[in-house]
């Protein structure tokens, strides 16, 4: 199994049983030779489903995708927050150049994969040392302490830049979606540091989500729904 495949499955929350479910293993099982049984395959799928949040997923955001101009910004990496900033810049440029009015455009940000930490507030970033854990460096070459798409504690964001921040974009009507699979790594970070049960760790992590973030089963799920609702796909990182 490739490293990329293994890393994805681990991030998705699949256990050792699921890691063994490669196409070759599944084929071997079908031929009644070696490999995990059909029961093991079902158990792995059940394990994954149980580890997802219990409440129903909210997909009502698709009804808010209105207006002539609609774009979905795919944000799979942190990259100093440029994916989020590009969403705000696009909205500003359309207003400046095309003279769009409020309600004529919709921005959807899909925060997924390693980028999921952008969906967490500054308390989470400082408490769980995201910069250190993810080996992130700021413009000064030092370990990044704060979420780059939110105001840092005690610091003023210049006026032109403030409107590009994640919280301000959400306040302005932009839709921000989080990947439920990638979010498992956030919950795991809380669980490990605070020695909590999974449900308690998820509850605590949820309390540190940026207000307005809407969690989805996965980032790809959100991407496809946004495109089906008429959004142009933008790889933003």
Throw out a few tags for this protein.
12 helices; 5 strands; single chain; alpha/beta; 2 domains; 237 residues; five-stranded parallel beta sheet; Hypothetical Protein Ychn, Chain: A
Determine the CATH superfamily of the largest domain: DsrEFH-like
Q: Using DSSP, what is the number of strands?
A: 5
The neighbouring-strand order within the major sheet is 4-3-2-1-5
Return the CATH class of the largest domain: Alpha Beta
Overall, the morphology is: globular
What gyration radius follows from the Cα positions, in whole Å? 20 Å
Give the domain tally. Answer: 2
Q: Distance between termini?
A: 27 Å
Can you describe what's shown?
The chain is of the alpha/beta class and 237 residues long. The chain has 2 domains: 3-50, no CATH class; 60-235, Hypothetical Protein Ychn, Chain: A (3-Layer(aba) Sandwich), CATH 3.40.1260.10. Helices cover 43% and strands 11% of the residues. It has 12 helices and 5 strands. The chain has helices at residues 3-11, 16-19, 23-30, 38-50, 82-97, 122-127, 130-133, 159-162, 166-171, 183-194, 198-206, 219-228; strands at residues 69-75, 105-111, 175-179, 214-216, 232-235. It has a 5-stranded parallel beta sheet with strand order 4-3-2-1-5, with helices on both faces. Strand 1, helix 5 and strand 2 form a beta-alpha-beta unit. Helix 10 (183-194) crosses helix 11. The relative contact order is 0.16. Residues 16-35 and 44-48 have low confidence and may be disordered.
